[in-house]
TrEMBL record:
Region Disordered: start-end pairs: 1-64
Gene Ontology terms, MF aspect: alanine-glyoxylate transaminase activity; L-serine-pyruvate transaminase activity
Bias-annotated ranges (Polar residues): 34-44
Positions with biased composition (Low complexity): 9-28, 45-54
Xref: SUPFAM superfamilies: PLP-dependent transferases
Organism taxonomic ancestry: Eukaryota, Fungi, Dikarya, Ascomycota, Pezizomycotina
The species this protein was found in: Clonostachys byssicola
Official protein name in the record: alanine--glyoxylate transaminase
Superkingdom field: Eukaryota
Stated family: Belongs to the class-V pyridoxal-phosphate-dependent aminotransferase family.
Protein residues bound to substrate: 400
Family annotation (InterPro entries): Aminotrans_V_dom, PyrdxlP-dep_Trfase, PyrdxlP-dep_Trfase_major, PyrdxlP-dep_Trfase_small, SP_NH2Trfase/AEP_transaminase
UniProt KW keywords: Aminotransferase, Pyridoxal phosphate, Transferase
Length: 435
């Protein structure tokens, strides 16, 4: 059953000052401000007492970074502390343990990592540690980010075979099975949600297929745009690695590479014949540090960001307060609303089949005669920021709407309504009328 949280529900908004009356006041104020002075800075504006502690600003509804909860942001103003002092070591250790829950894993031999960097560092972790030069990698690509993962693997000398889905779709299980039966692959990578297209890949049957046809192949997931908004049952599905980042559905500012690897992946690393092909991204350097932190022992390889770790700890504490299934369900409900509104407007979603559609973002084809430079500034004056397209085959033809984290879950925020209203009126101002 969908849950209807109360305004003070800590899983949704964990701060007494948090967005509790952000609602229409904030929206109209932002919209007024932006339309009267679209280019002036919002800096220095006093925040009305009933609003979030954040200055008024347009709702950032790109597919990451996303809007932040006040409590997460406030955690970053923690006083300075030593990265090897007991207070911070305890927080870091607890945060690593929280990741086990987030990934639904109880295997003590699986290894979480939190390393300063962005989502891309996750690709480097995989390429530098799990594949040796000349070894084969099968990359399933559903857009720009799948192609990027392939590029990263090639940079480290992997022999990459890429299977591309059609624009707006994913490679079929049959294609994957044929590829796996023709050649031995050390790893298979899949982008769970490609942020360039909003295409969702299915992981459970995919992993079962890999295990049946090529059981030694490691299954690695790019979960940058899926962790904390799409179901990921790491142990149950038999995944070997998920790499993600702090700034999307986890709802923490950018700057952390977050990853989780199975015992089998760690063993594959331990059995390498050659040393890892990176210094900063080496499991050899980081795994002992992560183990020590989780055991609440001080340890050092490279300085972490205590403030970001505090923010991540707060974000994960909020997420884990309620069952994950509720969180995924709520994202799915918001997604259904958005996709229906898009359809009602007479527009198409880039991900063609409903089962291939991500639940925390929507890539929307623009009507003919409406361009990205026409529509995005109009949305911005209405207090909403969307992103343009980045898939090379269709980049100028579509826009992207991120509906994840607090914007989708906090019942006191009206971000989704605001965005849909802005889209309707913005398109109409561009001269669009549904046929
Ligand atoms: C699916 C996916 N993978 C990888 C990345 C790269 O992450 P970052 O930009 O944090 O380096 C992104 C960024 O948006 C992404 O959406």
């Amino acid at each position: 059953m969908p849950r209807h949280p109360s305004p003070n529900d800590p899983s949704i908004t964990n701060s007494p000052s948090s967005s509790s009356s952000v609602g229409s006041n904030r929206i109209s104020q932002v919209a007024r401000h932006l339309s009267s002075s679209a280019t002036s800075s919002l800096k220095g504006q006093s925040t009305p007492p009933t609003m979030s502690s954040q200055p008024p600003h347009p709702a950032l509804l790109i597919p990451g970074p996303i809007e932040f909860d006040d409590a997460v942001l406030q955690s970053m103003s923690h006083y300075s502390e030593s990265h090897v002092g007991p207070g911070f070591v305890a927080t870091f250790g607890e945060t690593l343990t929280q990741l086990r829950q987030l990934f639904q894993s109880t295997d003590p031999a699986a290894q979480p990592f939190i390393i300063s960097g962005s989502g891309t560092l996750g690709w480097d972790l995989v390429a530098a540690n799990l594949v040796e030069a000349g070894e084969s990698a099968l990359v399933l690509s559903t857009g720009y980010f799948g192609d990027g993962f392939a590029d990263c693997l090639r940079t480290y000398g992997a022999d990459v075979t890429k299977i591309d889905g059609p624009v707006g779709g994913r490679p079929s299980l049959e294609e994957v099975e044929v590829a796996l039966s023709k050649k031995k692959y050390k790893i298979l990578t899949v982008t769970h949600v490609d942020t360039s297209t909003g295409v969702l890949s299915e992981l459970k049957n995919l992993t079962a297929t890999v295990k049946r046809v090529s059981p030694e192949t490691l299954v690695i997931v790019d979960g940058v745009c899926s962790v904390a908004c799409e179901e990921i049952a790491f142990d149950a599905w038999g995944l070997d690695g998920v790499v993600t980042a702090s700034q999307k559905a986890i709802g923490c500012p950018a700057g952390l590479s977050i990853s989780f690897f199975s015992a089998k992946a760690i063993e594959a690393f331990n059995n390498r014949k050659t040393p890892p092909a990176s210094y900063f991204a080496s499991f050899k350097n980081w795994a002992p540090i992560m183990k020590n932190y989780e055991a609440k022992k001080p340890s050092y390889f490279a300085t972490p960001s205590p403030q970001l770790i505090h923010a991540l700890n707060t974000a994960l504490s909020q997420i884990l307060t309620r069952p994950l299934a509720e969180r995924f369900q709520k994202h799915a409900e918001v997604s259904d609303r958005v996709k229906k509104a898009v359809k009602d407007l007479g527009l198409e979603v880039v991900a063609t089949k409903p089962e291939d559609q991500a639940h925390a973002m929507t890539a929307i084809y623009l009507p003919e005669n409406v361009t990205i430079p026409d529509i995005l500034p109009k949305l911005s004056t209405k207090g909403v920021i969307f992103a343009g397209g980045i898939h090379k085959a269709i980049a100028t033809k579509y826009i992207r709407f991120g509906h994840m984290g607090v914007s989708a879950l906090d019942p006191n925020r009206k971000d989704i309504d605001l965005a849909l209203d802005a889209l309707r009126s913005g398109l109409s101002e561009c001269g669009y009328q549904k046929a």
